[in-house]
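Translate sequence into structure tokens.
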Amino acid sequence: MGSQKAHEHYKQLGSPKWICAPMVDQSELPFRLLCRRYGVELCYTPMLHSRIFLQEEKYRKTHFTTCEEDRPLVVQFCANDPDIFVRAAELVQFQCDAVDLNLGCPQHIAKKGYYGAFLQDNWQLIERIVSTAANKLSVPVWCKIRIFDDVKRTIEYARMIENAGCQVLAVHGRTREQKGKEPGPANWDTIRAVREALSIPVLANGSVSSLQGAKLCLEHTGCLGVLSATHLLDNPKLFTNDPSPDKIVLSQEYLELTKQYPVELTMIRGHLFRLWKQLMSISQMQKLATASHVQEMEQVMLVSNDMERGIVSD
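Result follows.
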């Protein structure tokens, strides 16, 4: 698929500008549906481990769920074996619009498992994975990368991935070493340089905490879309220009979606901690941490709401 077809593919998806980034155990179906109600135009699944996904049915059922409203959808896998990546992707290719190779995860577990950003030193392997998938799958192959300190090397890296058959490239404007709670600002200049050097659609990721920031990122980089991750967890209405949404209302919506599309309690709890972190007392946080079902979490939420309004004391 050439660059023209790659752009046609992106247009067929509606030319999405506002995108929910892949997040381990956080961009699951109920959260994706919540974000889609408030401006998100395309979502990635959480990163799925291709080998485990291929081998374990329980893992597939737990970590990959979707529905008719959950489109356009990109399913992301980590992989270091072309055959495993393709076989895992074949299990989902008719339930999504593209599959994505994770080349950006900087965490220690990725280093230990030899995937994500730790493949960026092995261009030959990446080329094999992408080209094999591009030739065998029925859906386009996307990739999500991190940058190098050197702009020229980053451009060479991105061009190699494009030439291997990648149809859409998402660029996180931070290096592999920039991680943790304070990773520093994303380098939008490098993202722009990549976008200018490639002929396929390029998406920007990093340092977007508001709708205004997202618009500035698109203006600065010239990219077709922008991904948000952690800031979207704090505010699922980020792309609606509502900087101070009612977190209780959003939580209620999210919990209703989890009843319709059940997911693991650890995923639900993670979202509620992010949404309620300014609303809960320490005792309420402890109750949320030990809640064993959704109804219990709802009760904690109601008490927290009453406390916020001054109706009850802790």
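Note: The radius of gyration is 20 Å.
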